[in-house]
Amino acid sequence: MQDMETIKENQDMLVEKERLASLGQMIGGIAHNLKTPIMSIAGATEGLSDLIKEYDSSIEDKDVTPQDHHDIAKDMNEWIEKIKTHLSYMSDVITAIKGQAVAFSEQTASGFTIKELINYVDILMRHELKNAIITLNTKIDIDQNTAINGNINSLVQVINNIISNAIQAYQSQKKTNESINFEIYSEGKNIVFRIEDFAGGIPDNVKDKLFKEMITTKGKNGTGLGLF
């Protein structure tokens, strides 16, 4: 009985380790996904500041024509549109991350579309793919407005885990400029999500055990709970 309790405690510790690892990866993703747009907005702010100074100095300049004022206003508007684009992207990142955070504490089922799913996967995997210099080729042979009843955050986590494993398979071989195919299509009454990499495949002695608990090929860096 005591041995069973010890095993249960060890399993609980591994589950918590997996959760914390996923949480750490998610937090790292937040930082990287938001860093670029924040820097871009900072650059746009500098651009607007320069234009404001230029405009202010031109107010009493008799050589400045009305067209010059229109040109400055146009440049200002272009900077503002760029800021809006970056803010919209940051809002999408925060929405996706918020959903992932909720998934750590509760499992709620609700409807979502294929388009929403793809958007979440793109937002959360963009930095990891870019860093690894890997291209994700997404092919959707189904209406993107197709609705699915279930937990979008859990499904996103499953898909992202598999894509991450594909990236790591390439990285273990020090390969870059490679690709991962992600297809979504219907097969009868089912929707199929197919993820394919070209890193050499999984050894035969691992395939049969792949989706069982505690199976990992990452040594101390894995718990064997991800795919399980």
- Count all strands and give the number: 5
Order of helices and strands: HHEHEEHEEH
Largest sheet: 3 strands, mixed
Stated plainly, the CATH topology of the largest domain is called Heat Shock Protein 90
Q: How large a portion of the residues is in β-strands, by DSSP E?
A: 5-15%
In whole angstroms, the N-to-C terminal distance is: 26 Å
Mean pLDDT: 81
CATH superfamily of the largest domain: Histidine kinase-like ATPase, C-terminal domain
Radius of gyration: 24 Å
Q: Which residue ranges are poorly predicted, with pLDDT under 50 across at least 5 consecutive positions?
A: none
Instruction: Tell me the name of the CATH class of the largest domain.
Output: Alpha Beta
Strand order of the largest sheet: 2-4-5
- What is the helix fraction of residues, given as a range? 55-70%
Give keywords.
228 residues, alpha+beta, Heat Shock Protein 90, 2 domains, three-stranded mixed beta sheet, 5 helices, 62% helix, elongated
